[in-house]
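Retro notes (design track)

What went well: tokenization of the new backbones is finally stable.
What didn't: we kept losing track of which sequence belonged to which structure.
Fix going forward: every design gets posted as structure first, then sequence, in one message. First example under the new rule, 132 residues:
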């Protein structure tokens, strides 16, 4: 059980992300998300539009969690939801959803019993412009 860092994905030359967009991925390149791991929380408070994508092999559950705390190491998390009010407790991949709650920080959490899932990736796509 470890806290795995995220990395910002830099687009290739010629691929222009709109201003205010960011793409974040857990785990960092060369690392894995294993059973009981959580992602280091990423601050999302400035982004009214946040989507999550999960790719790879899931043998248990990957839960997308958010917190209202402003701490560097938050201790209070809740499971976030999609636009149909389904909990973001993902058991099959690929999966994609818009996160409806406005958390200050978001992270993935891999349930215990999942084993080593070397190809598991969780991505956030964030935009400072809200959907219309």
């Amino acid at each position: 059980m470890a806290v795995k860092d995220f990395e910002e994905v830099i687009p290739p030359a010629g691929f222009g992300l709109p201003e205010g967009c960011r793409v974040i991925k857990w785990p960092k390149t060369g690392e894995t998300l294993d059973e009981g791991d959580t992602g280091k929380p990423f601050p999302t408070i400035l982004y009214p539009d946040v989507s999550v994508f999960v790719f790879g092999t899931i043998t248990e559950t990957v839960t997308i969690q958010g917190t209202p705390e402003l701490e560097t190491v938050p201790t209070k998390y809740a499971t976030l939801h999609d636009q149909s009010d389904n909990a973001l407790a993902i058991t099959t991949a690929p999966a994609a959803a818009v996160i409806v709650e406005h958390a200050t920080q978001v992270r993935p959490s891999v349930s215990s019993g999942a084993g080593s899932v070397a190809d598991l990736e969780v991505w956030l796509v964030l935009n400072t412009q809200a959907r219309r």
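Added context from the reviewer: The chain has a mean pLDDT of 90.
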